[in-house]
Amino acid sequence: MEASSDPIKNNHHYLKACILYEVLQKKPIFESYRNFCNTVGQDAMEYPDFEYWYYRFYHGQMDFDYDRSADPQLKTLVDIPVVSMKKIAESLDAVERTHLRTMNHAIKDVADSFPPVFEKIEITVSKSYLSWSWNDKIYSCFKKGRGYSLCRPDKSRVKNSKKCYIEKGLEYLAPVLKMPNIQVKHFELFFDKQFIDPNDLLAVPFNAKSVYIYGHNMNQMVQYLSAMNPGHLESISLDGEAENFEIIFENDQFKQAKSVEIEASFECLMEDLVHFSHLKKFKCHFLGDHTFEDVPKIRDIISTFERLESCELEYSTVWGNSSMRQFAQALGEEIPIGPLKEVSKRLSLLSSHYRFLHFPTSLDSEKIMEASSDPIKRNHYYLKACILYEVLQKKPIFESYRNFCDTVGQDGMEYPDFEYWYYRFYHGQMDFDYDRSADPMPKTLVDIPVVSMKKIAESLDAIERTHLRTMNHAIKDVADSFPPVFEKIEIKLSEKDLSWSWNDRNYSCNKKGRGYSLCRPDNSIVENSNECYIKKGLEYLIPVLKMPNIQVNHFSLHFDEETFDPNGLLAFPFNAKNIFIYGRKINQVIQPLLAMNPGHLESISIDGMLHTETHHQTLPPR
């Protein structure tokens, strides 16, 4: 059997316990509701009800049995008068107004009464990511395994391990690009061997004044060009590597454009030149057979274009043997005697300026009381409901327990009890009232005989044995009977990160705002927004560096952070054969050096911009 959300869905107290569980994780309400629905079921609770209990708990009102019938009828967005809604819609940008279109017909009509206008929209589609920008707001949705990782303009990230990155990107793109009367000054599409059907992406006709399309399939490029409003589109630019280029000349958008740029990768023939006669401006690359014959023809044909204001032509012969001198002579121009050495090269520079806007909410200023985990901790049914909630999210048990403790509190439940209920629910045993007293007493690690534990400890490496030292005295003695030996240990500390390596296992703990982002040897990432990166790194370092009888062939310390005090970092004495220390203060060099075993240490190397300090410590004799 599998875990089921029915026990939660069928009990309004358990539902509220799960909502409080979401509140305690301090996630935004929309993200919490999405996770709640994905976990318990889309039919578990309507958003207005979820929102009501979310904000009650958020403001510290913990009564699960509160009677809502005494409350006045809640007003919603659809109750706002159309006149007021018009003022609201007017103050929103085009992307924000897309959400109003999903409310009701009256509000949708209000939103659509303001044509969405963009200076520039850019979309790039590749096999590894989909990126887009609305004017200066940039989004990127990366392929990550079978899922995606979405980066939004405020640098926040959303991840999912199951939904396709293109499918997720279209959830943002299509609602905007399919708005009626959308108007874009410049629309840019870049398809790098990955394609999205224009019917899934754009309103037809799509009102863009200028369009740039890069692709590897001319039929696909023409599909997008055909979606443009031919009476509105003025400028076309095409680039890429595609065959059947000539089909562009039959396109209505091409025939009604004022300006066309075709990059050199598309080669036009002499007979194609007549198709450009209606344009005011064009740029293209022509391929000919003989310079002396072709160039005068090009000049004569172009001179008949009545609307033409300017053009830029690149010309080459089939054999590639046309020189600048031949080209000039073919036009009848006088040229100087001697070699023609002048070559001009134009670089088009694109500068981008990104602005990230933050709109503070009044939520924190309104908060009087805070949500508390006490209602969950005091009720074993609510605790079990939260464990089932974790099981339904299909996370590994250690990750689930860590999240459970971070949310409810470290004293919420001991791991063996959490593990027991986790696996009962995982296997579909949903009885919250099951009597555990009938079960045999579970065996734990501390019940393993010392002889067997010795064999286990012998098979572990030095880092893995550090965990055994926290069990009991007998197991700690077993772990310590195997001296930890390292070929090399390196530790580097700066104002932005703390990194270290045990032989070939590399860790890095980076400063991220007020918290940290920890990258482990398996490339897994652990993040926390409140805990200092140095403090987190020391949780990994100290248990290893303070193991008795630790032996290191080469030990390297690099302190590029002035305020860090290394006192207490190492076991005393510390058995290293060779040591390198870089520091900003003399104390950062002296303290680790004093911890070294003078009978064991053979080589010392010191470097750094050491501040002169008065100190009275002396090194022990070697």
Question: What report would you give on this structure?
Answer:
This protein has 622 residues and is of the alpha/beta class. It folds into four domains: 5-72 and 380-427, no CATH class; 115-331, no CATH class; 443-482; 484-607, no CATH class. Helix content is 34%, strand content 23%. The chain has 23 helices and 20 strands. The strands form two sheets. Strands 1, 2, 3, 4, 5, 6, 7, 8, 9, 10, 11 and 12 form a twelve-stranded mixed sheet that branches. An eight-stranded mixed sheet has the order 17-16-15-14-13-18-19-20, with helices on one face. It is flat, with a radius of gyration of 35 Å. This is F-box domain-containing protein. It comes from Caenorhabditis nigoni. Residues 13-60, 381-428 form the Mos1 transposase HTH domain.
Give the helices and strands, then pairings.
Elements: H1 6-9, H2 12-24, H3 29-40, H4 47-58, H5 82-91, H6 94-100, H7 105-112, E1 117-125, E2 129-134, E3 137-144, E4 147-151, E5 157-160, H8 165-177, E6 183-191, H9 198-201, E7 207-215, H10 218-227, E8 235-240, H11 252-256, E9 259-262, E10 267-269, E11 281-288, H12 291-302, E12 310-317, H13 324-330, H14 363-366, H15 374-377, H16 380-392, H17 397-408, H18 415-426, H19 450-459, H20 462-468, H21 473-480, E13 485-493, E14 497-502, E15 505-512, E16 515-519, E17 525-528, H22 533-545, E18 551-559, E19 575-585, H23 586-595, E20 603-611
Parallel strand pairs: 1-6, 6-7, 7-8, 8-9, 9-11, 10-11, 11-12, 13-18, 18-19, 19-20
Antiparallel strand pairs: 1-2, 2-3, 3-4, 4-5, 13-14, 14-15, 15-16, 16-17
